[in-house]
Specification:
It is a single chain. This protein is an alpha+beta fold. The strands form three sheets. Strands 1-2-7-6-10-11-5 form a seven-stranded antiparallel β-sheet, with helices on both faces. It has a two-stranded antiparallel sheet with strand order 3-4. A hairpin with a 2-residue loop joins strand 10 and strand 11. The termini are far apart. The N terminus is likely disordered.
């Protein structure tokens, strides 16, 4: 063993690793087939994590005096059966998209992040023939990634794809609460029915907090939640909209709707909703016309799909935190929901508001704020 620094150890004569046995097997019999896991990602929420971590540590970390203090490690196993082990202090950066402007050296919070695309290690070279094991910590949880497939002759890493996949795993751990809500279908469907979505402005803690009100049946707490979005907070992100050409063209109309909301009156909420529901469609149509001036305006059934394609082009990460697939369904099922006067199905939507059949009591502060959040979501989608 050649110790180069506290954060970097070089190991020689590393045994060839084939992978981890996928499950328990009865006593080995000659010719028995077994399944091996050679590539995967596990979190400290899973039992397998501890089995794989214990075995990895016994091979690569036991010679490190302070192994019990390890929070992150990166192990690169080379074809000559040497390995570079980086522990704790090695640089980790991720490429992300922010919700707000920032300056070099500024401290960011989870609430500032709109998406993460890749995870990289500046100054550390990963060869396309390396086997890779990475463990990282976020909060009180750990993630473990390994790719041991490069022992096979001719099999090579796609380094760019590796960075993007690691970014995805890092993002899944950072925003585990948001993903957990989406995977809890009963709670998420109830929230959708009330017009809530993991809007960009509330991911990073607040959307998960809102979901707990639903799970714990404390829906009265949503009033305090909505009241957090006062004039200062709303205008901080609304003022960015005018950097977008499509929003800027509609500034006076959109701003009238936002200012109506900020009056904090029933009349203001009505005017906000009446105003912004039409402008949500209008901005999509403007973007469509800019993309293809030769094609007629979009039909209502095409609006959400156009947004989805625009978002997938801009958020080219794996499973974007803007959730374009889910937002497409939200637009179709909530915002563009139809109505039926005979059955009394006249829930507030774009159609019931513009056709004048929505009930006055449905023009609430919550629905008005959701219109503002929808516009903000589109600001991140359309460029």
């Amino acid at each position: 063993m050649n110790t180069q620094s506290l954060a970097h150890v070089r190991l020689d004569n590393v045994r060839k690793l084939e992978g981890f046995v996928a499950k328990d097997y009865p006593p080995q019999q000659e010719g028995q087939w077994i399944e091996m896991i050679v590539r995967g990602f596990f979190t400290s929420d899973q039992k397998e994590f501890y089995d794989y971590m214990k075995q990895t540590s016994s091979i690569f970390l036991n010679n490190i005096q302070w192994a019990h203090q390890v929070n992150n490690f990166l192990i690169l196993i080379h074809q000559d059966q040497t390995a570079d082990v980086y522990v704790n202090d090695f640089p980790i950066i991720y490429e992300g998209m922010l919700k707000r402007n920032c300056q070099a050296g500024e401290m960011l919070r989870l609430q500032d992040i709109a998406d993460i695309r890749s995870l990289k290690f500046p100054g550390i070279e990963i060869n396309k023939t390396d086997n890779v094991i990475l463990s990282f910590r976020w909060g009180w949880k750990f993630g473990l990634f390994f790719d041991l497939m490069q022992w096979e002759k001719g099999h090579c890493l796609d380094i760019d794809s590796l960075h993007r996949e690691l970014g995805w795993h890092y993002k899944r751990l950072m925003f585990q609460s948001e993903y957990a809500v989406l995977e809890n279908r009963p709670t998420f469907q109830q929230m959708l029915g009330d017009g809530w979505f993991p809007f960009v402005q509330i991911i990073g803690g607040e959307f998960a907090e809102l979901s707990r009100f639903y799970k714990d049946k404390f829906l009265s707490s949503t009033t305090q939640f909505v009241n957090r979005f006062n004039k200062d907070r709303i205008m901080r992100f609304v003022d960015r909209w005018w950097n977008n050409r499509f929003f800027e063209q509609k500034k006076s109309i959109i701003l009238a709707g936002v200012e109506a909301y900020l009056t904090n009156t029933q009349a203001g909420f009505i005017n906000c909703i009446k105003n912004l529901t039409s402008e949500i469609e209008g901005i999509i149509q403007l973007h469509h016309a800019h993309q293809d001036a030769t094609k007629a305006s979009l039909r209502h059934v095409e609006l959400a799909q156009h947004l989805k394609k625009a978002a997938e082009k801009k958020f080219d990460s794996i499973e974007p935190l803007s959730f374009p697939e889910e937002f497409c369904r939200y637009i179709n099922e909530i915002f563009l929901k139809g109505f039926d006067l005979e059955t009394g199905n006249i829930d507030l939507s774009r159609h019931t508001a513009l056709h004048g059949v929505a009930k006055p009591e449905d023009y609430t502060k919550v629905k008005a704020l959701q219109c503002i959040f929808m516009l903000d979501q589109m600001y991140f989608y359309l460029s």
